[in-house]
Write a structure and sequence with these properties.
Layout: H1 6-38, H2 46-55, H3 77-82, H4 119-127, H5 134-142, H6 157-172, H7 175-187, H8 195-208, H9 213-228, H10 238-250, H11 262-280, H12 287-298, H13 305-317, H14 320-326, H15 331-351, H16 354-383, H17 397-404
Helix pairs in contact: 1-2, 6-7, 7-9, 8-9, 8-10, 9-11, 10-11, 10-12, 11-13, 12-13, 13-16, 14-16, 15-16
Length: 425
């Protein structure tokens, strides 16, 4: 541009230079910001300048941008395929739908970012109650890998509050609060998502609190409420639940003091086991046989009387056929052994010092409880229509009559199915 006024020309040149400097400074600043945020390279390139010009609605100069090419270059397609150019992550995020958790457990899929090396250790750490992860953790440390716990199932705030209220009532609530909580679990229909948490709570608390009889009794009743709820499906969690309930039947000790009534707790837990077996035996055909096998093993001669009592009441709860198969043939031998031990203990009590009387008296009481349980089992068999003389070829009928004939006369049977009656020694 030319002008006849030198002073006006000088002012125009200064304004144009100042405006150009401002535009260049802004373009360079935007290009540097784009290069820094993209983290693609440490240097400012023509690609960054092209993006900055495009963001300021400026036209690109010829030969600039990512499509610029100053010379023709022969590209080796094989080298291009082997390079990482085609494997770069997309700039825009990609989305897909997958299961985050199913029944409180994360599926082992790539989207949940649980490495295949750690799957076995994580699964064992989540399901088992024993602390057997030391070897797994050492192996992981050797591989320089970091292990994280499986994420629990995401629950709504309402379900979290419901679970907290129920567990708080079970642990430290009054009798009225516990009855209300058990009734809610027995009837509510929208708590299926809490089933794995309830099962884990029951199994862990039972194994940790075997010396708290009444607390364990409440946990057994919580289990009964879960089984009685027709809206809940416990099939996938029975392998966690049954060991804890079987422990309540045949454990060596379920009380802190001999005065605690753990005998009725064993009976109640045995009835809960029978209810669960009746409900789920169609899906798991070997469920009853496996539970009865645990009760039969508790009757081994070397087991303590409390465990033998649990085995007897557990078998009796399954009805007269179980009594006929597992108790009739051994009733005489067990009765003779208990009678001999009882006679020895009575002699010890009569002639022992005071310091030993309490422990011996406790053992004597346990033996008499076992005798009562055996008589109850025989009474259940007789009351259900079974005949003790049908197995005359398999047992000593004369010995059986000599031990039990008079003791079964006062047996009073309740009409409820599989319930225990009362007899007197």
């Amino acid at each position: 541009t030319t002008t006849n006024t030198p002073q006006l020309a000088r002012i125009i040149k200064q304004n144009i230079a100042s405006l150009t400097c401002q535009h260049l400074t802004k373009i360079l600043a935007d290009a540097l910001r784009i290069a820094r945020q993209s983290k693609r390279s440490d240097k400012l390139t023509d690609v960054h300048l092209a993006i900055a010009l495009r963001s300021n609605n400026a036209s690109l100069p010829l030969g600039s941008g990512s499509s610029a090419s100053t010379s023709s270059i022969n590209v080796d397609l094989n080298a291009l395929v082997r390079s990482d150019v085609l494997n770069r992550q997309p700039v825009e995020p990609g989305l897909c739908v997958h299961w985050l958790a199913i029944e409180g457990v994360q599926p082992l899929i790539p989207m949940n970012s649980v490495g295949g090396v750690m799957n076995t250790g994580l699964k064992r750490k989540f399901y088992t109650l024993n602390n057997d992860n030391d070897a797994t953790n050492q192996n992981v440390d050797n591989l320089n890998l970091s292990v994280r716990q499986l994420l629990p199932h995401l629950l709504s705030e309402e379900l979290q509050l419901y679970f907290q209220k129920i567990t708080l009532a079970i642990e430290s609530g009054t009798i009225e609060e516990q009855v209300a909580a058990l009734g809610s679990v027995r009837c509510d229909s929208g708590v299926q998502e809490l089933v794995p948490f309830f099962i884990k709570f029951v199994s862990q608390q039972i194994l940790r609190s075997l010396d708290r009889t009444e607390y364990v009794r409440t946990l057994v009743r919580l289990t009964d409420a879960l089984i009685s709820n027709v809206n809940l499906h416990l099939e996938l969690h029975l392998h966690h639940l049954f060991p804890a309930i079987i422990t309540c039947v045949i454990a060596r000790r379920l009380s802190a003091t001999p005065a605690d009534d753990h005998w009725s707790l064993r009976m109640e837990a045995a009835l809960v086991l029978v209810k669960a077996c009746d409900k789920y035996s169609e899906q798991y055909t070997t469920l009853k046989s496996r539970v009865i096998k645990s009760h039969v093993e508790a009757l081994a001669p070397g087991r303590p009387p409390a465990s033998q009592f649990g085995g007897i009441v557990g078998i009796t709860a399954f009805g007269p056929k179980a009594v006929e198969a597992f108790l009739l043939n051994v009733a005489v031998s067990y009765w003779d052994k208990w009678s001999a031990d009882e006679a020895k203990l009575i002699k010890i009590v009569n002639g022992a010092a005071t310091t030993r009387t309490s422990s011996v008296g406790e053992l004597l009481y346990e033996i008499r409880q076992c005798q009562t349980a055996l008589l109850n089992a025989l009474g259940v068999y007789v009351a259900q229509g079974g005949s003790l003389y049908e197995q005359i070829n398999d047992m000593d009928t004369e010995a059986f009559t000599d031990r039990f004939s008079e003791k079964l006369i006062p047996f009073q049977y309740d009409e409820m199915e599989y319930s225990f009656g009362s007899c007197f020694l």
